[in-house]
Amino acid sequence: MRLMIFIFLVPFSASAGPLLDPAITYTITKELKSSGVAPRAVENSYSETKIDFQSFDLNDTSGKPLLSSQTDQLVKMRTLPKDPKDVQAIKDGLDHRVEITFEKLLTVSTVKVAGLPKPFETRSDLGVFLMNKPIVVKGDGKMGKKVEGLEAIRAKMSEVRDPIAQQTLSGLLKEELLLKTGTSGAQDASCLGALGGKKPGAKWSFSREEQGAKLDYDCVFEGWSEVKGKKVAVIRLQSKKARVQRTQPNGVPGMTETESSGIVYFEPETQESMMKIETNILAEPMESEIKSLKAKGAEVPRNRTRMWHTSQLYPL
Description:
Lipovitellin-phosvitin complex, beta-sheet shell regions, about 325 residues, mainly beta, 13 strands
């Protein structure tokens, strides 16, 4: 499973913790009818992500997942002071620096194994390895951008003994992923990017890449809720079904059908945001192979994956 990391940044504010509670569904306050507020550029934040992943073999009548995984991740992002004496960095457009620290990265996975009475469980706590190894993204992308500290961490990956944890770490420490993580305008990759000036009831759309598939989302600004005296924008989102051709584990081309739905909350005063989204993925062979398998009386392999993703961002 590719680790999905969604980062929506929020600015510095003296806050003891998040305002929004993932366990609560916030209702609309009809009296609040003002227009939406555009997200601002950000400097310092925490991003807390929780992912619950379950994959089912649709030919298995037990109804139990073939694979399940729970991930709990906490990332601190801090904008570092600029050094006016670093003439070369200024000239190259690399004087803007964001320090990224993974303070928590815990994954627990269970796999159903034929012949075993209980699923096989693995536990990967990469937070212990990463929490004292900050990564610095230099540049805001206008002239250039690069990652510092990555090679030093990769050189110490042998300290992580578990092969599954090593695979997760290898996927996480990709330069292209970290460059996106360190972008101050990351809100643009969600419904929030176009919220500014929208009236309650307004609709718009955006696109993003998820699990290798391009998803087109429809967004609806449902209105405002009131949480502890603060106005919170409520945005509903729904993706259109996306069908993508992929190679199956047996090397034969297959199809995946992906769709998502969820909700985004946004508090403009501190820029705190929370996204809760559910994604469903159906994987099956190509139509020609399905016909061939059915003609032989063979079982048609089908897999359904469900993923619940909560991403909460709040000031340091």
